[in-house]
Input
Amino acid sequence: MQTPLFIGSNIYRGSSYGRMHPLSIPRVPTVMDLARAMGWLPHAQYRVSPRARPAGLTTFHTPAYIAALQAAETAQAVDTQTQARHGLGTLSNPVFPEMFRRPATAAGGALLAAELLVHGGTVYNPGGGTHHGMADRAGGFCYLNDPVLAIQRLLALGCGPVVYIDIDAHHCDGVASAFDGAEDVRMISVHEEARWPFTGALGDVAGGAALNLPVPRGFNDDEFALVLHEVILPAAAAFRPGAVVLQCGADAVAEDPLSRLSLSNNAHWQAVKRLRNLAPRLLVLGGGGYNPWSVGRLWTGVWATLNGHAIPDHLPPEAETVLRGLTWSRAAGRNPPEHWFTTLRDAPRNGLIREEVRMRAKALTARLLVQV
Output
């Protein structure tokens, strides 16, 4: 087994979408600091993410959009026409100092990951996972769509077919738009029903390229385990992928403010563990996640799982210091529970497997059998 590689950058350190935005919190820096505090991120496994050049972004995004994004960063302002056409300068997708350079760095990391995976292996790019970006428009905090760019590059390098799995609380509308009808990409998305962007219905097949499983509020670890073993793993394996791309958004856990799902971080780690050896190539991306403690702990545990490191019951002082140094403007941030400081692993959030979850999983299984 090849040693996993971690792609990071200091551009995420101190960069923010604005004080009141959900992405005002540190995420990738917390993962880097925690992993180093645990002794899990030696220099040999770390790669600095390059910034993607405009030409590398226009395999998916339009030249006009990339030019508008660069101009908005330079001017630190957008006019009404640009806002209407490209979705820039809105509450969700605000103007901020690194609004081109930061997403271009995440995209550069995804493109680098594809290059690193040519001969097989595992790469982790937690700054990526911006799955809402459209070809000509920003959406849902996502200015560029690095999952699409990574999948395109993997295919161009002869690493396909590609299975894209998305366990973020929100549906991957940008990825679905990019690969609608594709024969060499299978998209599998598990996301909260009736949640923005209100796409990804059970019957939405994206031209035959997608399996969408909207799940109800309160979706728990036992329900996720059923979906993982009855839908995600069989559907992925049946496609015989040359590469798996996993978008591991951390907003599906119970403490996240922008969803109403009830998973523990154990669910994500189980998915990573089961997918590790499903294909010769695995790219794991970040995604959503708006509670600084739950994101940092979950994504650090993803890196531990990829490397086969045992996750201790209690963190060493150096790692605990990283978590105690975080702040959050929401009410939960003013009185966080002690385990957010002292552990990575959540208590399991087991529960009843509801009939609606079983029936939706069976519907996708039946569809998969027809496809096979």
About this structure: The chain is about 40% helix and 10% strand. The mean pLDDT is 97.
